[in-house]
Amino acid sequence: GAVVSQHPSWVICKSGTSVKIECRSLDFQATTMFWYRQFPKQSLMLMATSNEGSKATYEQGVEKDKFLINHASLTLSTLTVTSAHPEDSSFYICSARAGENTGELFFGEGSRLTVL
Amino acid sequence: AQSVSQHNHHVILSEAASLELGCNYSYGGTVNLFWYVQYPGQHLQLLLKYFSGDPLVKGIKGFEAEFIKSKFSFNLRKPSVQWSDTAEYFCAVKGGGFKTIFGAGTRLFVKA
Between A41, A103, A108, which is nearest B51 by CB? Predict the structure, then answer.
């Protein structure tokens, strides 16, 4: 199957700093990638849809100025958590479809963010 | 708006027991339905999917799911679970557009 890779897998940062998480599709091109956030014992919450070459589409309640998404190429999307606070600590997962008709999502391994 | 509801948050079974995990969704149009599984320490991966045709879908590792349109349900089943099935299972729905919405997940623990 298609491979999606995230980096870093775990990051610890101080409150007020910014953190960038990368999501790469390794063996396919993805015009669309999705960023999810997973709270403990809860489901994956879709944060935004990342579109190559254009602005991301954010879900209701997600601050676009706090969670900056850039999809500069067909194989890379980045999520930057700006001015991170402890409540931003979570597990962030990206995913992509290898083909628009399949519907199947391929997931990265996730990035655990801990804000002190 | 789409939503997905999974009935059980935690399930504990003994090996060889039968499994059924409930999933209901709300969306009036045509849907694509999925079950994803996350084994401890691993990525989420696809277990099975339904797009059209036979409503009884067979996936990997002996899992199957049945789409019942009138009940808006897509329950996951396995006749005899194994210890290696211990994982978290997510039901997901893709309606019109690009978005896939996930249920809250069910953690399955199988006792050896």
Answer: A103
